[in-house]
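Example 503, ligand zinc ion.
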Amino acid sequence: MAWHDVIQGGPALPALLGAELEPYPYISGYGLLRRMTQLGRLMGVELTALGIRNRVASDALIATQRPGAPKAGLLHALALRATRVGDYWSPEVWSPLRTGRMLEHHNLPLRDCSFCAAHGYHCALFQLPFIDRCPWHAAKLHTGCPQCGRTCWARFHPDLRLGRCECGYDAFEVRTASTNMWHFPAAEVDAWASRYLDWVAEERKSRLFVVPSPHTDWMPGYAALARQSLELEGMLVTAQPTAELEEFSDVGEDPPEGEFWGWSLLGGERPMTFVPLPATMHVKLTQATWDAVTAFPADTPTPFEFATLNGLDEGQTLQQNLVSRPEYLIAPHGFSSDQRTWLNLSAVDPTAAYFCGELLDRVISSLEVRDDGCSRSLQAARSHALDGIAGRRHVARALEAILVRAYTQGLETVLRSMMAAGNASKCQRWSLPTAEIVIANDVIRSVRVCWTPTRSAPSRRTVDTPASISPAMKTKTGSEASATRQRIRKRPTRRAGKMRQKK
Ligand SMILES: [Zn+2]
Ligand SMILES: [Zn+2]
């Protein structure tokens, strides 16, 4: 779609000074407001009429990039409701990954191109973290004030202008933005953006982004996954950020029915202590225990609390206790009759464990798995739905990788917190998972998991594997009963409601 078509249905003359559209293809709501507040020197009452009520607290990007009264008010005041101008104010439209509108709800500093800002121009595309340069000026986008270095937010200056820093710096140039507005490279922007939007629309059909929802630190993971696009290479993107990517897309057979039973317990409405996982997980978790323990010096003593809770020999070092039998913490009950291994979730990073459940739910909801009308528990419904999905092996491999990593860093935290009393988390590097699911023709083609460094570990929890616990191994209902023995923080249950509606 060309800009000419987007503005179809709008007024022949701009409703207000600064609201000119033709020279500024795909200008954001913030860009329009910046031009109007700068050129028209609007008063408070005029801004109210434009839908902007609270000038002190308002972030003009947030107000205009997501649906709501301010955005609707602005479109109405500018007589643009019949046009598609407002569709391009959300960064979501410019994203090659579908984020479930998370991008437009995320408050980010303003990202600006100095050449565009002289016109007051800003495009929602600039807010995407994988875009480093203005596509038409090739200038680096900046989030800090060029004069004082402060982070710029899309907030009003006390004189009610947008785009002016507290220190007084202002990239806006009245002559450039008015008399010389046609010097803006409108034709190039229109051609570039139309081509880009076509490509993005195609990508979005198959690419879904999943984040651990209570976390707000997912933006680096999103950026790293979105960068994985040939189309973007060499075009806009500069240096790669610190991120570890794993792709699961092997040719092979999908796992047999029931494989997801244990996985379906993760992140559910009732938090679990033990989950029964496929037997293949045993060796991976054993290795993870070994990795977590050998990360400490060989002469590290076994923390008293840890030894007591787990029935370990306090007189021996941690490595003596666990290197020879690293399965000790994972499967205190051995294998069950159907060859599943039991994982004690209390040592697992709860964010990542919950994320496994979110990944499953995203797969199920995006494929609209047909329901057979049977009434099932949340876990059983998840497990049943996954059994019918082609390409589910990629999901299974991704879950294994996420959980192993979650267990490794969770166990390390538990050990550090018992050893270093207080300053444990400072020594540990902590990573947050995000993921991309690629779906085409109702088949999962691949799952990409991204780990990015994050600030903090979740709150400390205790490893408790008292030998007296004996979860029922034989039946699925029995394993659910073991959930009553748990110490895991209560999780919100909103997902449960969503799943029930599907039945
Ligand atoms: Zn520019
Ligand atoms: Zn400044």
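Summary: The longest helix spans residues 392-420.
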